[in-house]
């Protein structure tokens, strides 16, 4: 019985040496970067200012910044040219906000817009509505498929519109 046990131990030792030389162990991390949360907040307001004035405010019920991208739920955004932008979800990449869900834009003066998807460029002040939209000003209603709206100049370019517009009558 002793010979068989020695043979078994010899085979086990040989297998352990073979595994030891074929398995490569290292402390190197894989080439994929691991995304880590840089910031996380609940029910917060972020304010952007410069030395002269308030530039914008952003509030949301939940937000997280990962890899330089800020994602916000139930966001409300305000600037000097826009009274308020609401959206169910927003994703900020650099100067661009990708808005999804029920997107609504209320102007200080001019039309108010509602859509499902829009892209807002903070630097240029341009709102690109990438889904069907509705614009309302008093009794004036405009429906369209897509739009390009300059919030600073108050100029709208839209495609495939259906509109009801009321104009003032002049008496002579």
Description of the structure:
The structure is a single chain. The longest helix has 21 residues, at 2-22. Helix content is 12%, strand content 57%. Strands 1, 2, 3, 4, 5, 6, 7, 8, 9, 10, 11 and 12 form a 12-stranded antiparallel β-sheet that branches. The chain has a single domain (37-164), classed as Lipopolysaccharide (LPS) transport protein A like domain (lipopolysaccharide transport protein A fold), CATH 2.60.450.10. It is mainly beta and 172 residues long. The protein contains 1 helix and 12 strands. It has one helix spanning 2-22, and strands at residues 37-49, 54-66, 69-79, 82-93, 96-107, 112-121, 126-129, 133-137, 140-144, 146-150, 155-159, 162-164. The protein starts with a helix and ends in an 8-residue tail after the last strand.
Top keywords for this entry?
lipopolysaccharide transport protein A fold; 57% strand; 1 helix; 172 residues; elongated
Structurally, the number of domains stands at: 1
| Number of beta strands | 12
Question: Helical residue percent?
Answer: 10-25%
Distance between the termini: 124 Å
Largest sheet: 12 strands, antiparallel
What CATH calls the topology is lipopolysaccharide transport protein A fold
Shape: elongated
Put simply, the count of helices is 1
Helix and strand run: HEEEEEEEEEEEE
Low-confidence blocks of residues: none
Highest-level CATH class:
Mainly Beta
Question: Which structural category do the helix and sheet elements fall into?
Answer: mainly beta
* Rg computed from alpha carbons, rounded to a whole number of angstroms: 30 Å
CATH architecture: Sandwich
Question: Quick check: average pLDDT?
Answer: 86
Q: Report the CATH superfamily.
A: Lipopolysaccharide (LPS) transport protein A like domain
Strand content: over 45%
